[in-house]
Amino acid sequence: MDRRDMYSGVAMMNSTQQKIRKDRKLSIVLRQAECDTKHCSGVESVLLVPGYKILFTASRDSTIKRWNVAGPQPWWEASFDGHTDWVNDIVLYNDILMSCSNDKTVKIWRGTSQGNVLSTLTHHTDYVTSLASTTNSNLVASAGLGGELFLFDIETTSTIKKLYPKDCTTVIPTRKGGGYNQQRSPGGMDIQEGMDEDGSGRGSGTHSVGLSMGSTRISRGELKKSSIFSLAMSASGNVLAAGGADHIVRLWDPRSGDKVGKLRGHTDTVRALALNENGTRALTGGSDGTVKLWDVGLMRCVQTYSIHTESVWSLLPTEGFSSVYSGGRDGAVYCTNLSTRSADLVALERRPVLGMVLDGGDGSLWVCTEGSSVSKWPAAGSRAQARESSRHTPDLDRAVAASPGVNLARMSPGLRMRQHSMEVRRQSTPVAKPLMSIPGVPAITSFKVLNDRRHILSKDSEGNVELWDVLSGGVVQSYGKVVLEEKEKELFEPRSVPSWFTLDARLGQISIWLEPPSCFLSEEYALDLGYPDAPEDQKINMGRLVLEGILAKWKYHLILEDVQRTGVQQVSNQELPSSSSANSNTPAQQGKDMCTSVVQPPFTYSEPWPKYWEQTAGFRVPPAVVCSYASGAPWRLLAPSFTGKELDPDVLPSWVVEAVIRGTNVIPKESKLAFILVPEEGSDMPTLMQSKLNAPRILQVHKVASYCLTKLQELNIHLDLKPQYLKRTAYATPLPPEALSSPPAATSDSIAMKTANSVGGNGQSNTTAGGSVISLTKGHVLELLCNGMAVPYEMSLASVKKYIWRKSDDLVFTFRVQDPHAPMPLPVLSGP
């Protein structure tokens, strides 16, 4: 069976699923240079393998990286690329690495591999913010903004138990490496509106808590109130704690799933949690700027430490629970002795602190922040200091035992704060410089899409501005530290191009989102896109060009498999004009030769321009493709990683396959523009036979002038053409050769005439509109005007209508013989 028929047969099995597939968006992440071996956005979590000097870092750029930190300088070992959004937390169980992300998934990896995903869990309905595990138990907990808390066995992942909210739901994974089918247990129940975590309902209506990917059936207000931001599990595996936006810390016994109790005392979101080995004490940090020490058995706060000036986002207790490192939004890292209430300033970062991990081998502290770099600082809790601090543990025990036996749960937050909050004695010791750092690539923080809808200006966290080309997938020029808005004005060109993609930079990289039918709205002439051998009137769809480039290797494997299996090429391969025929030694031409030499004719490989998956002399890293399965579970692949097996409609959306394989659904609905071409009033020029015309919106003015010149020659009026151009920007596409001299006659495909409602048209070949006979010889220059201004010849019809005509009715061009002493000036068109 033809693979196209196979695809069509599967795609038509279920019309509802087909509609879902067609609506799926596809994103192309334009990755920055060195992003393979460096992070390019904030690092959310760090994890050190004890005794092996192996460091894992999880970043907002959607990747996890493994580093060897045994030597004087850390070096990159591997990247774990599979999440499609921020990676918020990572934990390790033996050699199994687990990660959670804003893409609503938990991924399980082989930590010693080069980034191989073992399985993906899709049981959450919102961002997954936290993970918790222990080396003494194979249980792992995950929680997120949906307010859901799940518990699963890392060795089997066969059953996922939902601890909170309590609805007796289990999830049974059925597929590795992607999403899982999800099934409610026979005893499953719906959560009642107003129901608390015990299942006791106080409301009347019902809200079903569905586990299908992307379906959240609880109101956003309820989710915000119950969102979980922090998790911790005791080393013995007997206590699990979860802190949330409702200012409460909830406790469970993970072995039985029973709720143990609640800790109340914070006045804002609980952002950080830590438990001692046997789960008898807890440390919490909150957005209220405090760190609290709790007696878990008594369910009460015994000490409050006011150290930071802003939110506390990370806590790291030392061995023995005698001291705690805390970091937060103020960028400061303190080491606080819990018994003496003294705090040492250990580090001062430029950005908010997100995570920390101690290296007990050399007494140092790895700190990650909202920046893309990770720093190693000398820790206050070195071995000697830790021994000194441990002497105060009895004093801490006495402080806990001597604390008043007051039921803090019944006290107001203000009274609880006054009862236990005493200012910590902070020592303003000079902060040493980091011992070493793992540098990152500055994250892109803002961008501007230029008028040609092809080039993008980006600005990173260090203030550097760069120019990106969407079609080539990389940076074409760097400007250094300049003002983004001023550079946008400098590069302004009066272009009117339909918006065919959307952008975001939440990963610290530019992500281009394509969605039908808008992604197929923009066309350009092949000559303008760098195809010197293309016919003059051949147009190329920008959206299809990008899809052809990013999926070039995927399509190549499809063709190769068909040829090897049947000896006949079955996948259609519509040729695009070659852009490399002028230089057969270019990397692109060498890549084409390599592809065509693999199989015998009739195989021909279409070389789109440019080829995303082919790295050009190491200048550009391949982009990543982000999409979702038909079930809604997200997936991400680097462009060179496609194998051709992704033809299944469950993987690639049908509209993408149709566009790349068949070239369908790529014709813009409104690609024509009507305009009128008449002589300038008082110019004594004749009226053309047909004056109301239709042409592609992208048709350039020099072709209109060429058409006018040809029609005047038919009336025995011979004029010269002297093109006028606006100042070209550095990135602008070079003008075609015919635009630099008197162009030849326009082809029939360029401008279509309408005889109906023609303006003028008296049938006399050399008679003016006023009836007089004129005689012009070669040497006079034709001047084309619009709205009383000379028209730049590189502008398109759509651009002239938007920036010069500025009216909703049909565009009007007038022509006359140019006065050599007073030529009409070009318009002054300002930028944004």
TrEMBL record:
SMART domains: WD40
Record-linked PROSITE patterns: WD_REPEATS_1, WD_REPEATS_2, WD_REPEATS_REGION
Positions of WD repeats: 36-69, 80-109, 121-162, 226-262, 263-304
Spans annotated as Disordered: 175-216, 571-593
Low complexity bias spans: 577-590
Repeat listed as a keyword: yes
Keyword Membrane: no
Biased composition (Polar residues): 205-216
Pfam families tied to this protein: DUF3337 (PF11816), WD40 (PF00400)
Gene Ontology terms: biological process: double-strand break repair via homologous recombination
Molecular-function GO terms, alphabetical: ubiquitin binding
Keyword tags: Repeat, WD repeat
Similarity remark: Belongs to the WD repeat WDR48 family.
Protein name: Uncharacterized protein
